[in-house]
Amino acid sequence: MMGQAKVDETLLADAAYLPGQVANLTRGASVTAQTNEILERINDMLLREGTDKSEIILVNIWLRDLASFEEMNRAWDAWMPDSGTPRRATFEDKNLPPMCAIRIDVAASRKSEAGQI
Description:
InterPro entries: RutC-like_sf, YjgF/YER057c/UK114, YoaB-like. This protein is globular. Helix 2 (31-48) runs parallel beside helix 3. Strands 1-4-2-3 form a four-stranded mixed sheet. It has a single domain, classed as CATH 3.30.1330.40. The longest helix has 18 residues, at 31-48. It is an alpha+beta fold. Helix content is 29%, strand content 26%.
């Protein structure tokens, strides 16, 4: 049938989803400060989920103003491992919560006990 997707439930169980991450402590501060806070939280959350930033498979970034892309991107590049950046898309969203310049959604693979996916 057209329009129906089949989802492999085992793949979903092996992934960590961290949607809607926004700054709390640095809300209202620069895009760099907000990005750094969010990325550190994502790092901690991934570790609790049994994975790390090297296993990120997809990221969506929402900026209040796309003019701040380069500022966000410098913080992102400093945070990402040298192995490369995952598939990532950046969008503009003028309707982010007040004082919120950025929101990040992340999906990452969980590592198996042997450290392999």
